Amino acid sequence: MTAAGGRRMRTAAVAIVAALPPLLAGCMGPLPQPLVGLNQRLEAAGPARAPSLSGDWLALIVSQGGRDRVQLVDLRRQQPVPLPGLERPDAQPLSVAVDGRGERLALVRQLEGRTELVLYRRNLMALQPVPLQPPGVPRRVSLRADGRELAVEVSRQGQWQVDLIALP
């Protein structure tokens, strides 16, 4: 092989290697993209944590005026929806989850020195306590997309456990 032939092979090899990343990226599909407009609206609402995403609904805990509250966002309309009957000024939300229809929210909150698990039904605008058997201290909750089952992280005698709870 001549020196010129070797240079052509090296040049071709470099061109192939340089072309591989864009070609492979094209095979993997589009890259994830932030929803800039919605993210800016969420940021404007105040510091947020504990997001739960299901279907067209986003539930999160937002800090406003030194107080945490639950916010539910309709992602199709990109607007928060009211949650009458959910908030209490003396309650501190710790974890929230939403079902795929945005009708049920599960909430772990501290109230009057105790931590409790409750279920909120938007159509009834009412809270329902969810008992833990055996008793324990809930910390984090997740709600199945169809709203029929909860998974809750519970502390019992210093041990963390996960309970599954069927909902009517």
Description:
- Helices cover 21% and strands 46% of the residues.
- With 168 residues, the protein is α+β, with helices and mostly antiparallel strands.
- The chain folds into 2 domains: 1-33; 36-166, 6 Propeller (Neuraminidase), CATH 2.120.10.30.
- The chain has a 4-stranded antiparallel β-sheet, with no helix packed on it. Strands 5-6-7-8 form a 4-stranded antiparallel β-sheet, with no helix packed on it.
Tell me what portion of residues adopts beta-strand conformation: over 45%
Low-confidence stretches: none
**In the CATH scheme, what's the topology name of the largest domain?**
Neuraminidase
Please identify the structural class as seen in this structure: alpha+beta
> Helix coverage percent of residues?
10-25%
Can you tell me the CATH architecture of the largest domain? 6 Propeller
Distance N to C terminus: 79 Å
Treating each run of at least 4 consecutive H or I residues as one helix, how many helices?
2
Over the alpha carbons, how many angstroms does the gyration radius reach? 24 Å
- By CATH, the superfamily of the largest domain comes out as TolB, C-terminal domain
Number of strands: 11
Mean pLDDT: 88
**N to C succession of SSEs:** HHEEEEEEEEEEE
Multimeric state of these chains?
A: single chain
CATH class of the largest domain, named: Mainly Beta
Query: How would the global form be characterised?
Result: elongated
Quick take:
The protein has 168 residues and is an alpha+beta fold. The strands form three sheets. Strands 1-2-3-4 form a four-stranded antiparallel β-sheet, with no helix packed on it. It has a four-stranded antiparallel β-sheet with strand order 5-6-7-8, with no helix packed on it. Strands 9-10-11 form a three-stranded antiparallel β-sheet, with no helix packed on it.
